[in-house]
Amino acid sequence: MALLEIQNLTVQFETASGWFKAVDGVSMSVAPGEVLAIVGESGSGKSVAMLAVMGLLPWTAKITADKMEFLGRDIQKISAAERRKLIGKDVAMIFQEPVASLNPCFTVGFQIEEVLRLHMGLGAKERRERAIELFKLVGLPDPAERLNHFPHQMSGGQCQRVMIAIAIACNPKLLIADEPTTALDVTIQKQILDLLMKIQTETGMGLIMITHDMAVVAETADRVIVQYKGKKMEEADVLSLFENPKNPYTRALLSALPENATGDRLTTVSDFLAAAETGGAA
Protein backbone atom coordinates (compact mmCIF):
# COMPACT_ATOMS: atom_id res chain seq x y z
CA MET A 1 0.00 0.00 0.00
CA ALA A 2 1.24 3.48 -0.86
CA LEU A 3 1.94 5.83 2.02
CA LEU A 4 0.47 8.77 0.16
CA GLU A 5 -1.66 8.60 -2.96
CA ILE A 6 -3.00 11.66 -4.74
CA GLN A 7 -5.08 11.74 -7.90
CA ASN A 8 -5.99 14.87 -9.87
CA LEU A 9 -5.14 17.44 -7.20
CA THR A 10 -6.08 21.01 -8.07
CA VAL A 11 -5.43 24.05 -5.89
CA GLN A 12 -6.85 27.47 -6.81
CA PHE A 13 -6.47 30.91 -5.27
CA GLU A 14 -8.83 33.81 -5.91
CA THR A 15 -7.24 36.88 -7.49
CA ALA A 16 -8.55 40.21 -8.76
CA SER A 17 -8.84 38.71 -12.26
CA GLY A 18 -10.44 35.41 -11.19
CA TRP A 19 -9.33 32.03 -9.90
CA PHE A 20 -5.67 31.09 -10.43
CA LYS A 21 -4.67 27.41 -10.61
CA ALA A 22 -1.44 27.00 -8.65
CA VAL A 23 -1.72 23.20 -8.95
CA ASP A 24 -3.52 21.77 -11.96
CA GLY A 25 -4.53 18.10 -11.92
CA VAL A 26 -1.39 16.64 -10.33
CA SER A 27 -1.26 12.95 -9.36
CA MET A 28 1.45 11.20 -7.38
CA SER A 29 2.18 8.44 -4.89
CA VAL A 30 5.04 7.56 -2.58
CA ALA A 31 5.78 4.15 -1.07
CA PRO A 32 7.33 3.28 2.31
CA GLY A 33 11.11 3.65 2.11
CA GLU A 34 10.97 5.51 -1.21
CA VAL A 35 12.50 8.92 -1.97
CA LEU A 36 10.32 10.89 -4.38
CA ALA A 37 11.70 14.17 -5.73
CA ILE A 38 9.36 16.88 -7.00
CA VAL A 39 11.37 19.25 -9.16
CA GLY A 40 10.64 22.44 -11.07
CA GLU A 41 11.18 26.17 -11.11
CA SER A 42 9.90 28.49 -8.41
CA GLY A 43 6.16 28.94 -8.85
CA SER A 44 5.57 25.51 -10.37
CA GLY A 45 3.26 24.45 -7.54
CA LYS A 46 5.60 22.03 -5.77
CA SER A 47 5.23 23.44 -2.27
CA VAL A 48 1.56 24.34 -2.69
CA ALA A 49 0.67 20.73 -3.51
CA MET A 50 2.32 19.49 -0.31
CA LEU A 51 0.85 22.28 1.81
CA ALA A 52 -2.56 21.16 0.56
CA VAL A 53 -1.80 17.65 1.81
CA MET A 54 -0.69 19.06 5.17
CA GLY A 55 -3.81 21.23 5.47
CA LEU A 56 -1.69 24.36 5.80
CA LEU A 57 -3.14 26.50 3.01
CA PRO A 58 -5.46 29.41 3.85
CA TRP A 59 -9.15 28.53 4.10
CA THR A 60 -9.82 30.69 1.02
CA ALA A 61 -7.88 28.25 -1.18
CA LYS A 62 -10.08 25.96 -3.29
CA ILE A 63 -8.71 22.40 -3.06
CA THR A 64 -10.15 19.44 -4.98
CA ALA A 65 -8.84 15.92 -5.64
CA ASP A 66 -10.30 12.66 -6.89
CA LYS A 67 -8.23 10.94 -4.21
CA MET A 68 -6.02 12.12 -1.37
CA GLU A 69 -5.22 9.22 0.92
CA PHE A 70 -2.61 8.47 3.55
CA LEU A 71 -2.28 4.73 4.19
CA GLY A 72 -5.68 4.26 2.59
CA ARG A 73 -7.33 6.90 4.77
CA ASP A 74 -9.12 9.76 3.01
CA ILE A 75 -7.51 12.88 4.45
CA GLN A 76 -10.02 15.12 2.68
CA LYS A 77 -12.77 13.83 4.95
CA ILE A 78 -11.07 13.72 8.34
CA SER A 79 -11.94 16.29 10.99
CA ALA A 80 -9.61 19.09 12.05
CA ALA A 81 -8.87 17.22 15.30
CA GLU A 82 -8.01 14.03 13.41
CA ARG A 83 -5.76 15.97 11.03
CA ARG A 84 -3.87 17.50 13.97
CA LYS A 85 -3.20 13.99 15.31
CA LEU A 86 -1.96 12.86 11.90
CA ILE A 87 0.12 15.88 10.89
CA GLY A 88 3.29 16.21 12.91
CA LYS A 89 3.21 12.58 14.00
CA ASP A 90 2.77 10.27 11.00
CA VAL A 91 3.32 12.99 8.38
CA ALA A 92 5.87 15.74 9.02
CA MET A 93 7.30 18.59 6.97
CA ILE A 94 10.55 20.54 6.96
CA PHE A 95 9.91 24.04 5.64
CA GLN A 96 12.05 26.25 3.37
CA GLU A 97 13.04 28.92 5.88
CA PRO A 98 14.13 27.32 9.17
CA VAL A 99 14.61 30.56 11.08
CA ALA A 100 11.21 31.90 10.00
CA SER A 101 9.54 28.54 10.77
CA LEU A 102 10.70 28.48 14.40
CA ASN A 103 8.87 30.63 16.96
CA PRO A 104 11.26 33.42 18.04
CA CYS A 105 9.51 33.77 21.42
CA PHE A 106 10.31 30.26 22.68
CA THR A 107 13.49 28.26 23.12
CA VAL A 108 14.13 25.50 20.60
CA GLY A 109 13.96 23.04 23.49
CA PHE A 110 10.43 24.15 24.34
CA GLN A 111 9.39 23.82 20.70
CA ILE A 112 10.63 20.26 20.28
CA GLU A 113 9.30 19.19 23.66
CA GLU A 114 5.88 20.61 22.77
CA VAL A 115 5.70 18.21 19.82
CA LEU A 116 6.63 15.30 22.08
CA ARG A 117 4.01 16.32 24.65
CA LEU A 118 1.19 16.71 22.12
CA HIS A 119 1.84 13.65 19.97
CA MET A 120 3.68 11.22 22.25
CA GLY A 121 2.26 12.11 25.68
CA LEU A 122 5.71 12.06 27.29
CA GLY A 123 6.37 13.46 30.76
CA ALA A 124 8.77 16.35 31.39
CA LYS A 125 11.84 14.18 32.11
CA GLU A 126 11.19 11.88 29.14
CA ARG A 127 10.64 14.86 26.83
CA ARG A 128 13.95 16.41 27.80
CA GLU A 129 15.83 13.13 27.37
CA ARG A 130 14.25 12.54 23.97
CA ALA A 131 14.99 16.13 22.88
CA ILE A 132 18.67 15.75 23.80
CA GLU A 133 18.77 12.42 21.96
CA LEU A 134 17.28 14.03 18.84
CA PHE A 135 19.68 16.99 18.95
CA LYS A 136 22.57 14.52 19.16
CA LEU A 137 21.13 12.61 16.22
CA VAL A 138 21.01 15.70 13.98
CA GLY A 139 24.55 16.70 14.95
CA LEU A 140 23.98 19.74 17.16
CA PRO A 141 26.92 20.36 19.52
CA ASP A 142 26.26 20.56 23.28
CA PRO A 143 22.66 19.34 22.84
CA ALA A 144 21.60 19.79 26.48
CA GLU A 145 22.78 23.40 26.49
CA ARG A 146 21.33 24.01 23.01
CA LEU A 147 17.81 23.30 24.31
CA ASN A 148 17.94 26.63 26.16
CA HIS A 149 18.74 28.69 23.05
CA PHE A 150 16.34 30.85 21.08
CA PRO A 151 16.32 30.62 17.27
CA HIS A 152 18.12 33.98 16.87
CA GLN A 153 21.05 32.60 18.87
CA MET A 154 21.67 29.88 16.28
CA SER A 155 22.94 29.84 12.70
CA GLY A 156 20.75 28.99 9.72
CA GLY A 157 22.29 25.51 9.49
CA GLN A 158 21.72 24.89 13.19
CA CYS A 159 18.09 26.03 12.91
CA GLN A 160 17.61 23.64 9.98
CA ARG A 161 18.92 20.81 12.15
CA VAL A 162 16.44 21.80 14.85
CA MET A 163 13.64 21.70 12.26
CA ILE A 164 14.73 18.22 11.19
CA ALA A 165 14.81 17.09 14.83
CA ILE A 166 11.27 18.40 15.35
CA ALA A 167 10.07 16.73 12.14
CA ILE A 168 11.46 13.29 13.03
CA ALA A 169 10.67 13.51 16.76
CA CYS A 170 7.63 11.22 16.51
CA ASN A 171 9.13 8.80 13.97
CA PRO A 172 6.92 9.85 11.03
CA LYS A 173 6.05 7.40 8.29
CA LEU A 174 6.31 10.19 5.69
CA LEU A 175 8.61 13.21 5.73
CA ILE A 176 8.21 16.12 3.30
CA ALA A 177 11.36 18.22 2.89
CA ASP A 178 10.63 21.53 1.15
CA GLU A 179 13.87 22.96 -0.27
CA PRO A 180 15.72 21.85 2.90
CA THR A 181 19.03 23.42 1.84
CA THR A 182 17.75 26.84 0.72
CA ALA A 183 19.88 29.78 1.94
CA LEU A 184 22.58 27.50 3.36
CA ASP A 185 26.17 27.54 2.19
CA VAL A 186 27.44 24.65 0.08
CA THR A 187 29.20 22.79 2.90
CA ILE A 188 26.15 22.94 5.15
CA GLN A 189 23.88 21.92 2.26
CA LYS A 190 25.86 18.70 1.85
CA GLN A 191 25.71 17.99 5.60
CA ILE A 192 21.94 18.50 5.72
CA LEU A 193 21.30 16.27 2.68
CA ASP A 194 23.56 13.55 4.07
CA LEU A 195 21.74 13.76 7.41
CA LEU A 196 18.31 13.47 5.79
CA MET A 197 19.33 10.49 3.69
CA LYS A 198 20.93 8.78 6.71
CA ILE A 199 17.73 9.18 8.74
CA GLN A 200 15.57 8.03 5.81
CA THR A 201 17.70 4.92 5.27
CA GLU A 202 17.81 4.00 8.96
CA THR A 203 14.09 4.51 9.63
CA GLY A 204 12.65 3.35 6.30
CA MET A 205 10.28 6.30 6.13
CA GLY A 206 8.99 7.66 2.85
CA LEU A 207 10.60 10.96 1.84
CA ILE A 208 9.31 13.61 -0.55
CA MET A 209 12.09 15.99 -1.54
CA ILE A 210 10.87 19.27 -3.04
CA THR A 211 13.65 21.04 -4.93
CA HIS A 212 14.65 23.00 -8.01
CA ASP A 213 18.17 21.57 -7.85
CA MET A 214 18.72 18.72 -10.30
CA ALA A 215 21.96 17.78 -8.54
CA VAL A 216 19.98 17.11 -5.35
CA VAL A 217 17.56 14.99 -7.39
CA ALA A 218 20.37 12.92 -8.85
CA GLU A 219 21.93 12.38 -5.43
CA THR A 220 18.84 11.52 -3.39
CA ALA A 221 15.84 10.37 -5.42
CA ASP A 222 14.48 6.98 -6.48
CA ARG A 223 11.74 8.54 -8.60
CA VAL A 224 11.14 12.05 -9.93
CA ILE A 225 8.12 14.18 -10.80
CA VAL A 226 8.76 17.28 -12.94
CA GLN A 227 6.28 20.15 -12.55
CA TYR A 228 5.80 23.27 -14.65
CA LYS A 229 3.16 25.97 -14.17
CA GLY A 230 1.20 23.78 -11.78
CA LYS A 231 1.10 20.71 -14.03
CA LYS A 232 3.01 17.44 -13.97
CA MET A 233 5.17 17.27 -17.07
CA GLU A 234 6.90 13.95 -16.52
CA GLU A 235 7.38 11.14 -14.02
CA ALA A 236 10.18 8.57 -14.15
CA ASP A 237 12.79 6.75 -12.12
CA VAL A 238 15.82 8.97 -11.59
CA LEU A 239 18.14 7.12 -13.98
CA SER A 240 15.62 7.17 -16.85
CA LEU A 241 14.90 10.84 -16.31
CA PHE A 242 18.53 11.88 -16.64
CA GLU A 243 19.42 9.50 -19.44
CA ASN A 244 16.28 9.79 -21.55
CA PRO A 245 14.01 12.70 -20.59
CA LYS A 246 10.73 12.56 -22.52
CA ASN A 247 9.25 16.01 -21.96
CA PRO A 248 10.70 19.21 -23.55
CA TYR A 249 10.55 20.99 -20.20
CA THR A 250 12.55 18.23 -18.50
CA ARG A 251 15.13 18.46 -21.28
CA ALA A 252 15.16 22.23 -20.76
CA LEU A 253 15.93 21.83 -17.05
CA LEU A 254 18.75 19.42 -17.78
CA SER A 255 20.16 21.61 -20.57
CA ALA A 256 20.44 24.49 -18.09
CA LEU A 257 22.84 22.58 -15.82
CA PRO A 258 26.38 24.09 -15.83
CA GLU A 259 27.95 20.77 -16.86
CA ASN A 260 25.81 20.81 -20.02
CA ALA A 261 26.88 24.31 -21.03
CA THR A 262 28.23 24.85 -24.53
CA GLY A 263 29.95 28.00 -25.69
CA ASP A 264 30.38 31.09 -23.54
CA ARG A 265 27.00 31.13 -21.77
CA LEU A 266 24.57 28.80 -20.10
CA THR A 267 21.44 27.74 -21.94
CA THR A 268 18.47 28.92 -19.89
CA VAL A 269 15.16 27.09 -19.63
CA SER A 270 13.56 29.92 -21.61
CA ASP A 271 16.19 29.61 -24.35
CA PHE A 272 15.54 25.91 -24.73
CA LEU A 273 11.75 26.18 -24.76
CA ALA A 274 11.85 29.04 -27.26
CA ALA A 275 14.12 27.02 -29.53
CA ALA A 276 11.89 23.95 -29.17
CA GLU A 277 8.83 25.96 -30.22
CA THR A 278 10.57 27.18 -33.39
CA GLY A 279 12.16 23.82 -34.15
CA GLY A 280 15.68 25.13 -33.65
CA ALA A 281 18.47 24.16 -31.28
CA ALA A 282 19.12 26.12 -28.11
TrEMBL record:
Main subcellular location of this protein, as a coarse class: membrane
Keyword S-adenosyl-L-methionine set for record: no
Name of the featured protein: ABC transporter ATP-binding protein
Subcellular location: Cell inner membrane
Residue ranges annotated for the ABC transporter domain, each copy included: 4-254
Record membrane topology: Peripheral membrane protein
GO biological process assignments: peptide transport; transmembrane transport
PANTHER family: DIPEPTIDE TRANSPORT ATP-BINDING PROTEIN DPPD (PTHR43297:SF2), OLIGOPEPTIDE TRANSPORT ATP-BINDING PROTEIN APPD (PTHR43297)
Keyword vocabulary terms for this entry: ATP-binding, Cell membrane, Membrane, Nucleotide-binding, Transport
A GO term, aspect molecular function: ATP binding
Domain of life where this protein originates: Bacteria
Membrane spanning residue stretches: none
Pfam family for this entry, one: oligo_HPY
One GO CC annotation: plasma membrane
Cross-referenced InterPro entries: AAA+_ATPase (IPR003593), ABC_Ni/Peptide_Import (IPR050388), ABC_transporter-like_ATP-bd (IPR003439), ABC_transporter-like_CS (IPR017871), Oligopep_ABC_C (IPR013563), P-loop_NTPase (IPR027417)
Family: Belongs to the ABC transporter superfamily.
